Model the fold of this input.
Amino acid sequence: QVQLVESGGGLVQPGGSLRLSCAASGSIWSVYTMGWYRQAPGKARELVASITLGGSTNYADSVKSRFTISRDNAKNTVYLQMNSLKPEDAADYYCNADLQRRGISYRENYWGQGTQVTVSS
Done:
């Protein structure tokens, strides 16, 4: 039983900050690339940021210089620090991870349940 659980979403004013967390739990051998995606109403889900096991990062152009993704491998947790938030950042944010379960020889992809971020004055 493996699951990803997000937390930290909420309501903030434009220009404010928010920190999202996502913890992978269960019978896990190794967690590889982890990432954050977001989906606004009526729009497609898009990649916000990702980070490899070794710490290499990738960001969407729209959030570069404002958001920072990081991870704690000992806790199988990924974070997304969001600064200078804009109304267009409002969306449901989803955690994603490529991981290998204990006793399994291949990698699998998992999604979290999502956490809502609202940016409004």
